[in-house]
């Protein structure tokens, strides 16, 4: 039988293990290019631990691949607040912003042709 004091520790440990499992699932889905599933798995992690930088990063990568740049940028910025010195996160912010600009330029060029 688990004592009351140990029960809360045990429950917390289970939640941490679940978060790690979902984080690994998110990584697997990223490697397999199943970006919607990666977003879902990373979101499950963040429901358990909203300060999980790996999950924020993985969800940002998946959303960027789905061209959801605003959502991806929001996750990357949240990760940067939690870990300001994380070089990988900082570098990916640059990637997202670059992709955003590229898409904006393409849309602008298409609209320009349409209205000429």
From TrEMBL:
The keyword Electron transport does not apply. This is Uncharacterized protein. It comes from Petrolisthes cinctipes. Keywords: Repeat, TPR repeat.
């Amino acid at each position: 039988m688990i004592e009351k004091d140990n029960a809360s520790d045990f429950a917390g440990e289970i939640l941490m293990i679940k978060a790690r499992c979902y984080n690994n699932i998110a990584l697997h889905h990223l490697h397999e290019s199943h970006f919607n599933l990666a977003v879902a798995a990373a979101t499950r992690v963040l429901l358990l631990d909203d300060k999980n930088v790996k999950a924020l990063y993985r969800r940002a990568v998946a959303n960027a691949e789905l061209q959801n740049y605003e959502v991806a940028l929001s996750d990357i910025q949240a990760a940067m607040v939690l870990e300001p010195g994380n070089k990988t996160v900082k570098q990916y912010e640059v990637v997202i912003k670059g992709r955003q600009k590229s898409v904006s330029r393409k849309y602008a060029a298409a609209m320009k042709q349409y209205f000429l």
